[in-house]
Every structure is written in C-alpha cells, then in structure tokens.
Design goal:
68% of the residues lie in helices and 4% in strands. The chain is globular, with a radius of gyration of 25 Å. The protein contains 24 helices and 6 strands. The chain has 2 domains: 379 residues, Na+/H+ antiporter like fold (Up-down Bundle); 150 residues, Rossmann fold. The chain is mainly alpha-helical and 558 residues long. Strand 1, helix 19 and strand 2 form a beta-alpha-beta unit.
C-alpha cells in the first residue's frame, strides 16, 4: 500500500511538471522510476511485483493499436514487416556485434549487445505516434512494421542468451524448426479464432447488455491471445496485437477500445516507471563518459541504419530519415535481454550498467525526438524535406487554381468516396486528400481529384484552396487527426463549415467544442447524411436519393 501511494503521488507531481513544460508524460514516468526506485531514494522496494502488472500495459497498448488496423492493411504492410524489419534487426545486430568485438568484448557478450541495440520501444513509439496522429503516415507505418518484426525476434534472442549462459539446453536445428512450426500454428489459430469465433461471441455477450460481462470478455480475449503466443515462445504483445486486428472490422471495436483504455493507460504508465527503476544511479559518476559515448553511438547508428534501409526500400529521403529518428532508441524488450545477460554473468556489472543507462537515457530522449521528428529531419536534410513538401504542393497547386467555392474532403475512404462521387454528380467542384497511396490511385482511376498528402498540414490545405472553399468534410475515422485538422483550420478561419464524421458518440462534444459545424455519427447511411449536410450548407437541393431534404443555406456561410 505504501509503495502504491508513493508512486501515485510522485507520478501526479511529475506529470503536472511535464505538462506545464509541454513535455511527454512518458518522461515523467521514467523519472519517477529512477527517483523512487531501489537505486534512487529507495521509496519503492517491491519492483518485481510491480513489473509483473506493468507488463500488461504493453499488452493492452498493442491490443488497442491492433484495433486501428485490419487484415488487408497488414497484408499490404508485409513488405515492410518482412523486408525493412528483417533488414533492420539482422544488420543492426550484426554491425553492433562487430563494433563490440572491436572494442574488446568477447563474441558471446557482443552478440547479446547486438540484439539489445537492435530493439526499439513498441510501447513508446506507438503511443507517441498515436497521440501525434502520425500512426497512419508513411513513416508511422514503416516504424510499426519494423517494430512488429522486432517483437517477433525477441524470443529467439532470449533463447540465444539462455543457451549462452547455460540456463537451457544447447539449441539444435530440430528445436528451431519445432519452434517455428508452433509459432505458425499459433498465429493461424488466432486468425481462425478471431474470424469465426470472436464476432459471434461478442454478439452473444452484447445481447445481455451487461457492462460487467462485456468488460470481462474483453479482458479474457486480450489476455488469452497474449498467453497463446507467449506460451509457444513468441512475444506476448504479438498475440494481443493480432487479437485487436481480428476485432478491428467488427461493430464492437470502439466499445472494446473504451473498455480497455483505463487499464491500458494506468498499466502503461506503471510499465515505464519500472524501466526507470532499473538504473543504478550510484555508478553514473564513474561511467558517465562511457554512457554518453554509448548513447550517441546508439542513436546515430540506429537512425542511419534504418534511414538507409528505408531509402533502399524505395522511400524518399524525408520519410527514411523520419523513420530512423522515430526508432533511434532502445526498447523494453532490449532491457529484458540485457537483464538476462547480466544475471547470467555474460556482462561485467560496470559494462551492463553503462549499457543500461545509455538505453534508459535514449528512451528519455525518444519522446522529444519523435514529437519533433519532422523539424529534426528538416534541419538534417533541408533540401530533401523541402523537396518532399514541394512534391506534394506541385501535385495539388494546379487543381485548386481552377476551383472556387469548392468542397475539400479529408480522407478518401468509403464516406469520402461517396461524398466526392455525389458532389461531382451534382456538378459541385471538390477535391479530396488522403495519405494512403492506394486510395489516391483508386481515386485517380475513378477520374476524381484525389491527391496525396497529410490533411492535418495547414500549408497543404491552403494549397488545396482552403481560403476560397465553401466547406470542409473530415471523413477520416482517426480522432486525433480530426482534432488536428479542425484546430488548424479554425486557427485561420472561424466561419468555414466543417462537417465531421465520428465513430464514437463520446467524441461529439469535443468535436463541437473544437469548432466542428456538424458532427455525424458513423452509422448506416452516414455517408448519405454527410452528403446531405454538405448540400444544405451549399444551398443545393439534391436530385434524388439522399435521406435528408436540403434546407436553406445559412446566410453566414460562404
């Protein structure tokens, strides 16, 4: 009880200070862990018990991230996961191992350090990118694809460390093949179970209208899926992520997400606190030079390697550098590998603490680097980043010049396609923006004016004729992205009608408060309701099939 109160009090104070300085709360959690942990002030002693619960924070985080994805999207990402991911993990580990051997470490210790350095923090990156509405950008998807492969490689590294320390029997080819077969069967089971069982199960649970039963079912699904992959030697977060993917295309995804959010946020904060508790601050004065050298080497090595792999994979320089910056730090599973190696005597205590400190400080810097990844990329490579912006501008500037009193549609998904199609049919000029290249190509094939770009970019919206637009439609389902678009548009225009689509009724008030003119829930027929609302705002009466008749346009609107 005393440990809990101490952590809560310290965390509340640290988060208040971080928010006041406009820093990430993740920094607060890490600092609290260092200060109150056994190597700091020693106010919290039962670290192992806390760490057991903290690991569930990562499980729930990856489950919620899985809810934002779908099987078709993951299939399109297979080149990123298997291509970029394998190249990053294998070559980064190999290069790090070689450098460590040159610095005097034996081959076994160097190999362990190679695996440690190859890992990045799935929990930190996914949370930060989701908060910044960058999870579905090109650099965001690249980062997630690489992280997924890293998660799959955690257990092979742990098996390697265990075999080198003599805590398990010597590996053989049969052992490796058996593990791969078990992993494949487990993943197939999760996909089959998710497709044929989860949806009927939640429909049956929903019939009883019991909040308690629904919450318990969600917890059971998350923990069971994590246990399945963990029990056969894979990362437990991989199972929870796949379970989220299975539920992503069901009607229950938003209710499921709202049920796990309290557990996720609380346990995830606890997870970062436990990472901070691992650092022995008493040895820092004696090894600070080694720590600084390791920290700079780690960040530079990973950033350059990942950017190079992305560039070789066909991505432009701007996307490549931003992906490298996002993953240029250590991860939670790297700590797991390092702790096992230190416990097995593979690393000297001073070397282990130096590596641990460098990893921890890299995670302290990571939220700042990720938040400002675009600015840092522009400072490092001003011409490529500017060229990328110019490329997007050139794709759009010739179209808005011919448009006046047009509609800008942010997102070319189902609702966006319907809106663009019907507006074109009615003879109303319109333009759509989407970050998915496949959607852009689909729109161009349909002879629609669809252009690639981030609709949250005010400069891009201006290039699309924001100043002379008649209305703005936000059809994307990502809440953070929607809020970013509204906030930036309202910073320059308080009168433009903004029609927003949302999948969660709990967001209605927030969207109206942010400046949305009309918010329409994503239900059956919502695409027609959005189109009807647009025609009403434009003072145009529809010619046929809309659900809602047109009204007189507001006199204050363009």
């Amino acid at each position: 009880m005393n440990d809990t109160l101490v952590m809560l009090a310290a965390t509340v104070l640290a988060i208040l200070m971080c928010l006041r300085m406009k820093l990430s709360p993740i920094l607060a959690y890490l600092v609290v862990g260092v200060v109150v942990g056994p190597f700091g002030l020693g106010l919290v002693s039962d670290v192992e018990h806390i760490r057991t619960f903290a690991e569930f924070g990562v499980v729930f985080l990856l489950f919620s991230i899985g809810l934002e994805f779908s099987v078709p999207l993951l299939m399109r990402m297979k080149a990123t996961v298997l291509g970029l991911g394998s190249a990053q993990v294998c070559l980064t580990a190999a290069l790090s191992t070689g450098i460590a051997i040159l610095l005097g470490l034996n081959a076994e210790s160097a190999l362990v350090l190679g695996g440690v350095i190859a890992m990045s923090s799935t929990a930190l990156v996914t949370k930060q990118l989701a908060d910044q509405a960058e999870l579905h950008t090109r650099h965001g998807r690249n980062s997630l694809g690489i992280l997924l492969f890293q998660d799959m490689m955690v257990v092979p590294f742990l098996i390697l460390v265990a075999s080198l320390t003599g805590t398990t029997s010597q590996m053989s080819l049969l052992t490796v093949i058996t593990a791969l077969v078990e992993a494949t069967l487990a993943l197939l089971f999760i996909f089959v179970f998710g497709h044929w069982v989860l949806k009927p199960l939640f429909r049956e649970v929903a019939r009883f209208r019991s909040a308690e039963l629904f919450s318990l079912t969600v917890l059971l699904v998350v923990l069971c899926s994590a246990w399945i992959t963990y029990s056969i030697g894979l990362s437990f977060v991989l199972g929870s992520f796949l379970a989220g993917v299975m539920l992503s295309e069901t009607e229950f995804r938003h209710q499921v997400e709202s049920e796990i959010r309290p557990f996720r946020d609380l346990l995830l904060g606890l997870f970062f606190i436990t990472i901070g508790m691992m650092l022995d601050t008493s040895v820092l004065p004696a090894i600070w030079l080694q720590v600084l050298a390791l920290l700079l080497s780690l960040i530079l090595l990973k950033c350059v390697m990942i950017a190079l792999f992305c560039r070789l994979g066909g991505w432009n320089n701007a996307v490549s550098v931003r992906t490298g910056l996002i993953l240029a730090h250590s991860g939670e599973f790297g700590f797991a590998i390092l702790v096992m190696a230190m416990a097995g005597g593979m690393l000297e205590p001073d070397v282990g603490q130096a590596v641990l400190a460098a990893m921890l400080f890299s995670m302290v810097l990571a939220p700042v680097i990720i938040r400002h990844n675009e600015k840092i990329a522009a400072m490092l490579l001003p011409q490529p980043v500017q060229h990328n912006r110019q490329e997007i501008r050139y794709r759009t500037m010739d179209v808005p010049s011919a448009l006046n009193h047009h509609v800008i549609v942010c997102g070319y998904g189902r609702v966006g396609q319907h809106s663009i199609g019907f507006l074109s049919q009615e003879g109303i000029p319109c333009i759509a923006i989407d970050l998915d290249p496949d959607q852009v190509q689909r729109g161009m094939a349909a002879k629609h004016q669809v252009f690639y770009g981030d609709a949250g970019s005010l400069s891009l919206l201006r290039e699309c004729g924001l100043k002379c637009a008649s209305a703005l439609v936000i059809s994307t389902i990502d809440f953070n992205t929607t809020m970013k678009i509204i906030d930036r548009v309202r910073s320059v225009d308080n009168e433009l009608p903004i029609i927003v689509r949302t999948r969660k009724e709990i967001h209605l008030y927030q969207l109206y408060q942010a400046g949305a003119t009309e918010v329409i829930a994503d239900t059956f027929g919502s695409d027609q309701m959005i189109t009807a609302e647009m025609l009403d705002r434009l003072g145009v009466r529809s010619s046929g099939f809309l659900l809602t008749p047109a009204k007189t346009a507001d006199t204050g609107m363009r």
